[in-house]
Amino acid sequence: MMPNMRAPASELPINLMRISIVAAAVTLLDDITLTLGPGAPTVLIGPNGAGKTTLLRAAMGLTPVTRGRITWGGKDWGGRESAPPGRRAILFQRPVMLRRSAAGNVRYALAAADVPHSARAERTAGLLALVGLEGLERRPARKLSGGEQQRLALARALARDPAVLFLDEPTASLDPAATKAIEDLVRTITARGVKVVMSTHDLGQARRLAGDIVLLHRGRLIESGPAAEFFAKPRTPEGRTFIAGELLV
Amino acid sequence: MSGDVSALHMVLTGDPGLYAIVRLSLIVSLSAVLLAALIGVPAGAMLALVRFPGREAAIVFLNALMGLPPVVVGLAIFLLLSRSGPLGSWGLLFTPQAMVIVQTILVAPIVAALTRQTIEDLWAEYRDELAAMNVGAGRRVVTLVWDARFSLVTALLAGFGRAAAEVGAIIIVGGNIDGFTRTMTTAIALETSKGDLPLAVGLGMVLMLIIVLINALAWGARRAGERYAG
Amino acid sequence: MPTRRIFVAAAIIAVMAAQPAPAQDKSIVVASTTSTQDSGLFEYLLPLFTKKTGITVKVVAQGTGQALDTGRRGDADVVFVHAKSAEEKFLAEGQGVQRFPVMYNDFVLIGPKSDPANIRGMKDVAKAFQTIKDKKADFISRGDRSGTNIAELKLWKDAGIDIEKDKGPWYKSIGQGMGAALNTAGASNAYVLSDRGTWIHFKNKGDLAILVEGDKRMFNQYGVMLVNPAKHPNVKKELGQQFIDYLISPQGQKDIANYKINGEQLFYPNASDHGA
Q: How far, CA to CA in Å, does C143 sit from each of A238, B16, B175, C167, C224?
């Protein structure tokens, strides 16, 4: 079972200070300053190509920044493109299942997180139960449905006992029932003290889940702030256009 | 092995000469594949995962090694192992061990090249996830090799096919000695040159049967494994 | 789990590597010729020798030239070939201890039953060779420095022909053993010089037949030598000498004479003829 509360997260706050990411002469993120603090989920919104995925990966520590600085709980990690340290986890937009059973995938994540052998069986069962995959332990992970794979990837991410969990459009390819399952899980783990930072296309989902909103457009941060304020009265023209459901070009 | 008796008759009566030849063929080829795997799989995996200067050239070279002419390898090993050669004191010429050495040299590049391709493809798939799970370099290699094991079995089968088919190189280093270094392929060559074509054809069919059996076994193992692990 | 599999693999290799040791102790390597092997003599003779002495004989069969080279490299304990001039050169180089004549058979000139060069029944084999060249009839040469090849080249010389200069597309040098040469001759309706032993034992005769035989120049003498242990210390000289002693002993000579195919004797023992 996941521990209910952990020690104050040393991962938070995540401070992104004037970061830019340029790759192959294309500016993916342009001079972004943002603080991710504990509490309710932060939801990134914006059109395709706005830089949501890149921002998530940078905050996770997977993608090095070209300019600027990121600190996690005040510590600068250095931004090399190697495995991220610390208690952070990420669920990619299209998660890749390892060629093992569902339980095998979770056990692998636990082993990689240096969880002792004796604890793995129990934690695996707990995590699979949490994401609603009991009974599917032995099924080859690649044979699960899209929604099931997403939930399994979530279980893998949670195996790291993260303080911060990044989710990249977790329900983009799921039907409403599966979407609801994921959203319920987001609420559950938020209640257990995990900070969720996620991106979405779905304004409704943003309204349902967000504590804070971050609007991105063409690699730039347009607006950020408490979700309630944003949805009631967006400060920028882009914000107003986006909420109205029109295309941000 | 008397030439007057047909190969089928020998199989049915359990002719000891025939079984000695089959047994030697299997031992030599399987040993070579095993050794080639121990060399080739780590080498291929390393080539797939480690970025070092000259890596591209190494890959081209490895692919070229797959086309090593067997008789050239046989000749080179012959010169090495001959009593008047540098490794003569090992006394390995005209022994099954020499045949295993030659076949390992021929098979290892195949296994390494196929391993490299397989691991590289799987790495492209797994890369982000393994990075996100904080998997270190050592565990990463083990994971990729383990998860790719069924494709690697196919690579080993290709190696086995290569080893089982070899004639020229192993005649050179083995000497085709009756009862000691005569395999199915070298026996077929001998009986053909003695003009005993029916026997040669019969031996050939026995050899084909064995190869088909081994492929079927590997296929069955692969299917069972895939059903289990996907 | 992969570590466990490596253990299993290593264990299998260790088992296999430990295998052939027992036979090594009492065994010798004899470099001999493909003609001798193809005649089936060794399959008949060696078990008799092993039963008598407990020594295992490993025969590496090559052409005479190659077999002598194997002796020169020290890769064999005994050489048993059939080209006296090459053997005497071997001795002169100090590579062999002593040469013993063992047995003889003869060469036969084989050709298609249709006999396009019309040489059937000729008593003078050099004349037959001359006729083949004049008629440009297809001829297969072993071209592999074997005893048979050396004999063939000598016959061209006896016919006054410089075959290197005078050969044409009708003369095909294939660089392979007697069996392969007979196969090729049968497949292309050509003439070929063969030793009688291989011919009798050959199973793919097809349209071929003996066309010329009996000329004294077709006499084929076999000799055996111990590789010189002074030059190659690894030579098993006691065991090798036992093999030589057997071949020239009355029992060995009797065994050789008793080797027959379809009632026909292949080799004629003549160890007592010291000038052979």
A: 90, 36, 20, 13, 23
Position A166 pLDDT exceeds 80? yes
CB C36 within 8 A of CB C263: no
**Is pLDDT at B209 greater than 80 in this prediction?**
yes
Residue C2 sits at the chain B interface (C-beta within 8 Å): yes
Does the beta carbon of C168 lie under 8 angstroms from any beta carbon of chain B?
no
Distances (CA, A) of C217 to A13, C83, C220, C223, C274: 105, 13, 8, 17, 19
Q: Closest approach of chain B CAs to the CA of A47, in angstroms?
A: 24
Alpha-carbon gap: B175 to the closest alpha carbon of chain C (Å)? 5
Report all structural domains of chain C as residue ranges with CATH numbers, in order of start. Answer: 2-104+221-269 (3.40.190.10), 106-218 (3.40.190.10)
List domains and CATH numbers for chain A. 1-87+162-249 (3.40.50.300), 97-159 (no CATH)
Looking at the predicted structure, is the pLDDT value of residue A122 above 90? yes
Q: What is the dihedral of CA B204, B207, B211, B213, to 10 degrees?
A: 120
User: Are B183 and B28 within 8 A, CB to CB?
Assistant: yes
Provide the pLDDT for residue A6.
Answer: 45
User: For B82, which of C19, C23, C73 is closest by C-beta distance?
Assistant: C73
Give the domain ranges of chain B: 7-224
Averaged over successive runs of 10 residues, the pLDDT of chain C (276 residues) comes to 52 53 72 88 94 95 92 96 93 96 94 93 93 94 89 93 89 88 91 91 90 90 96 94 96 95 89 86
CB contact under 8 A, B132 and A157: yes
C59 vs B: CB within 8 A = yes
Q: Is the pLDDT reported for residue A78 higher than 70?
A: no
From CA B187, how far away is CA B177, in angstroms rounded? 10
Structure-token match 């002993």, residue found: C249
The two beta strands, C171-173 and C139-141, are: parallel
DSSP H or E segment with residue A34: strand A26-36
Å between C262 CA and nearest CA of chain B: 12
Closest C-alpha among B49, B224, B203, B71 to residue B136 = B49
- B132–chain A nearest CA distance, Å: 6
* Domain B7-224, CATH: 1.10.3720.10
Radius of gyration of chain A (CA): 18
Question: What interface predicted TM-score (ipTM) does this complex get?
Answer: 0.85
CB-based contact, A156 to chain B, within 8 Å? yes
Q: Residue A199: name the closest of A14, A18, A44, A29 by CA.
A: A44
* Chains B and C, touching by 3 or more CB pairs within 8 angstroms: yes
Cβ separation C59–B178 shorter than 8 A: yes
Q: What is the mean pLDDT of chain A?
A: 89
Of A83, A96, A140, the CB nearest to B125: A96
Range 95-124 of A in CB contact (< 8 A) with B? 95-96, 98-101, 104, 108-109, 112-113
